[in-house]
Amino acid sequence: MEGEQAVKPKGKSNLYIAIIAVLLCLILIMLFLISPLKNLIFPVAEIPQLTLVVVESAASAEDPGTYRILVEAIVEGNPEPQVQFNRNEGIGQVEPNFSLVLLAEEETFLLTAVATNAEGSAEAALELFPGIAVGVDADSPDAEGGPGATDPDADDDEGEDTEDDPEAGPADPDGNNAPEIEAIIYEDDDISDLIFRGESLPVRYAEGRHNFVVIATDRDDDAVEFDIEASHGSLVDITRVAVDSVAFTWLSPANPAGNLEALNVSIAVTASDPAGAADRQVIAVALLPVVGDDGADDPVAAEVTLNTVAVADLSGYVTSAGQVRTGVVLIGDNSSNESIKGYLAFSLATLREVHPDSIISTRIRFDHINKSGRPETFATWVDFKEYDYGPDLDARDFAVGGTRFYKQRAESFNSGLSVQGSLITQVRRAVAAGDDHFFVKMGLDVATNNNSADDLFQFLPGNVVLQVVLLER
Predict the structure, then answer these.
(1) Do residues 323 and 430 both lie within one domain?
(2) Total domains, the chain
């Protein structure tokens, strides 16, 4: 009609406005999701990560002959993890994430800590010496759980050679790199693996002189200085062999008359550069008493070896889903991506009347080990802990806890393996306490590789033997 203007439909215009509003909302949501603001408003839950660091290690001014070692637990995770130590003599004197340990001369102690939150747990340990602290191990966030590390103030993996470790990374081009102790030679025999695993070097009192060579490397090509200390005996003939190595002789102390007890000795070697960065290894020596003829008609003592096969009814495995079985031991993960821990029990009946100090050597020998899949491709370590799970193995035993005495590289966990580490300390403790059995828990340092396949170490309890060597008159 004339005089009337055409009216444009409003529906299409409103649709355009709605589409633009939706697109703007989607863009804002995406920006929120990729911005740090999201984590501030909705923090991501994280399993604990735990590292133990020595912040003070010195002789006590108040109590001569006592050493004060202060250890801090550096912990991450969300919610904030709670930390518990197995020893703390500074209650009321230190913060919650600190442990104060007082040690007498020649005393050692394995300090362990567990950090726990709603997402899980992590465990770490440090072997403490008077005036010296040696890192043992920190579990990975997924880990279930040996001793001896290259850095006395770090929670390292048993002093493994970082040159062969693809995760070690290249040298820091902008900073100073600490030297690394690469090899330890004893009487022309390379004992590096023995020391890095935390095992003791067995020698006799009668041998007197013991010759060592220590070789270190420095990524910055700095001059390396060596410092050597021995807890017993004396050091002589310390000689610089080359720019990266030192030779020395350790004179062991005399054997007391009638002595039948082994003496545990620590020889600490520190390699440092001009900037003060350092690496330390502790050579553990088991100084064994004289056995056999001492010049008289009768022998002073004799060594007796006791072999105990694992108890099948108490040895087995537990999965993270709660499945329990005895009679066969599995370690790794399964096709359901469940983590699996293995357990062994050894009867101590033959040691009932034995004095703990007469035990001079212990080892667990694995005579036959099978594999399903390739557990060594995702796990670096197999951890061994003394863990008293009582008269029955049940689902509750899939838990953090126990005292680690050894760890073995997963790639070399096979038939013929002998496990030692600080096992002798745990066996002596069990014998002294009158325990009926000695229990062992084993797990990989990574829970699963999530490949929906079995990756397992497996063996029968009948193929595992606890070997205990006694010294008897």
Answers:
(1) yes
(2) 4
Q: State which residues form the domain around 455.
A: 303-472
- What are the two backbone dihedrals, phi and then psi, of residue 469, each rounded to the nearest 5 degrees? -105, 125
Same domain, 58 and 84: yes
Same domain, 313 and 449: yes
Let me know whether 201 and 331 are in one domain. Answer: no
**Residue 296 lies inside a defined structural domain of this protein:** no
**Six token digits for residue 245:** 């190595």
Report the b/e string of 307-336 with b at 16+ CB within 10 A.
Answer: ebbbbeebbbbbbbeeebebeebbbbbbee
Instruction: Say if residue 398 is in the same domain as residue 278.
Output: no
- C-alpha dihedral over 138, 140, 142, 146, to 10 degrees? -50
Looking at 108, 140, 163, which one is the last position of a domain?
A: 163
Kind plus residue range of the DSSP H or E element containing 50: strand 46-59
Q: How far apart are CA 323 and CA 330, in angstroms?
A: 12
* DSSP letter for each residue of 67-98: EEEEEEEEEEEESPPEEEES--S-TTTS-TTE
Cβ contact 71:155 at 8 Å: no
Question: How many CA atoms lie less than 13 Å away from 442 in the CB half-sphere?
Answer: 29
Round to whole Å and give the CA distance between 161 and 51: 20
pLDDT digit of tens for each residue in the chain (473 aa)?
A: 455 555 555 566 777 787 888 888 887 777 666 655 555 555 678 888 887 777 777 776 667 777 788 888 888 888 889 888 888 886 545 567 888 888 887 677 778 888 888 888 888 777 777 764 443 333 333 333 333 332 322 233 333 333 333 333 344 545 788 889 988 988 877 788 778 777 778 887 777 889 999 999 888 888 889 999 988 888 888 888 877 889 999 988 887 766 666 788 889 899 998 888 888 888 988 887 755 544 444 445 577 899 999 999 999 999 999 999 999 999 999 999 999 999 999 999 999 888 887 887 788 999 989 888 999 999 988 989 999 999 999 999 998 888 888 878 888 888 888 887 778 878 988 999 999 999 999 999 899 999 999 999 999 999 999 999 887 75
Q: Is residue 294 part of a domain?
A: no
Are both 123 and 90 inside the same structural domain? yes
419, 446: one domain: yes
The answer to whether position 94 is within a domain reads yes
Q: Is the pTM of this model over 0.70?
A: no
Domain limit, last residue, from 119, 144, 163 = 163
Looking at the fold, whether 282 and 355 belong to one and the same domain comes out as: no
In this structure, the chain runs to a length of 473
Reference 240, options 221, 218, 210, 213; nearest CA is: 213
Q: Provide the 3-class DSSP secondary structure of residue 251.
A: strand
